[in-house]
Amino acid sequence: MKSIVVYYSLTENTKFLAKEIAKFVNADLLELKPEKEISKGLTKYLWGGKQVFMKEKPKLNKIDKKIENYDQIFIGTPVWAWTFTPPIRTFLSENKIAGKKVYLFASHEGGLGKTLEDLKKQLENNKQISKIDFYKPLENIEKCKKQIAEWLEIKS
Ligand SMILES: Cc1cc2nc3c(=O)[nH]c(=O)nc-3n(C[C@H](O)[C@H](O)[C@H](O)COP(=O)(O)O)c2cc1C
Asked: 3-155, what's its fold?
């Protein structure tokens, strides 16, 4: 069973989760990087929020992995304005994912909103979709590691 963890992360929380998950299931890692990244300062809320509301699909750097080669696909996103992030929207529009086992994970600060439902709707043609969310991962490292282990021991 070949697995890949695809994720976007602006401030490293989702990256931490992605790396932990990849270690746990021995998966390849694919970080999505927009060609033009938004600033990590306070303006991120403005520009990031605008991208979400406009349903923008920012252009991503070239991807060096073939998604169709994998059986299990993990997709990780921060929550932006109660949903998944624009780079994930770009990725899903450019990579049709069907017939796979899909695992969704999100990183947030208490306002998960519809992130995982919205993401699930984009991935309906798959065998199985499992999802989990994590609260402020970099402030709750041990708790998140435990959550990951519990999630994947049951699902993998
Ligand atoms: C544009 C923007 C919008 C956000 N909206 C939400 C939100 O709706 N709910 C929430 O809980 N956190 C929100 N956050 C906080 C992030 O989801 C949270 O910090 C997350 O852990 C960041 O992941 P990252 O470090 O991988 O980028 C938002 C952050 C940004 C930059």
From this structure: Rossmann fold (3.40.50)
- Domain limits of the chain? 3-155
Q: Residues enclosing ligand 1, CB less than 6 A?
A: 9-15, 44-45, 48-49, 78-82, 107-111, 113
pLDDT in tens, 107-125: 999 999 999 999 999 999 9
Q: Which distant-in-sequence residues (6+ apart) come within 8 Å of 148 by Cβ? A: 17, 20, 21, 24
The token pair that represents 29 in the structure block: 């890692």
Q: 81-109: per-residue pLDDT in tens?
A: 999 999 999 999 999 999 999 999 999 99
Closest ligand 1 atom, CA of 76?
Answer: 26
Q: How far is the CA of 8 from the centre of ligand 1 (A)?
A: 12
* pLDDT category of residue 9 using cuts at 50, 70 and 90: very high
Whether pTM exceeds 0.85: yes
